[in-house]
């Protein structure tokens, strides 16, 4: 059970198999997207300190963040695929940031985050 589908990711990002080097391998391309969706879900679960077990209880906001996080993974792949260094101006270069789990995504997940329990021991 996923928080979003491969087709939803394809629709949002407009990414095609040939864009990622999977010209005649649609199944391999979809397997890669499923892996990236799984990674995005794992980041969300870890941040929120919980998982959503069945499809009926997944809030729309969680589905949306999963789609956006997966699209960030795709964008990062695109950016780093050809050249991991970008030219800022004539005299400086910058390495592309690997941040995919951005602050706006964390803000959208705050209402779903479980607080950590603090145990106090008395001696």
Can you give a write-up of this model?
This protein is mainly alpha-helical and about 120 residues long. It has helices at about 5-15, 25-50, 60-80, 105-110, and strands at about 85, 95. A two-stranded antiparallel ribbon has the order 1-2. A hairpin with a 5-residue loop joins strand 1 and strand 2 (about 95). Helix 1 (about 5-15) crosses helix 3 and helix 2 packs across helix 3 (about 60-80). The longest helix is centred in the first third of the chain and has 23 residues, at about 25-50.
How many beta-strand runs? 2
Gap from first CA to last CA: 46 Å
Which class do the helix and strand fractions yield?
Answer: mainly alpha
**Order of helices and strands, N to C?**
HHHEEH
The coarse overall form would be globular
Strand order of the largest sheet: 1-2
């Amino acid at each position: 059970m996923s928080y979003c589908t491969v087709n939803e990711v394809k629709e949002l990002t407009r990414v095609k198999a040939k864009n990622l080097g999977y010209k005649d391998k649609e199944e391999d391309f979809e397997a890669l997207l499923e892996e990236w969706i799984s990674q995005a879900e794992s980041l969300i679960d870890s941040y929120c300190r919980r998982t959503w077990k069945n499809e009926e209880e997944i809030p729309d906001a969680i589905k949306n963040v999963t789609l956006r996080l997966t699209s960030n993974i795709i964008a990062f792949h695109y950016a780093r695929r050809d050249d991991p260094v970008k030219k800022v101006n004539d005299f400086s270069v910058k390495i592309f940031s690997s941040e995919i789990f951005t602050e706006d995504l964390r803000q959208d997940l705050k209402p779903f985050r479980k607080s950590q329990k603090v145990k106090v021991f008395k001696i």
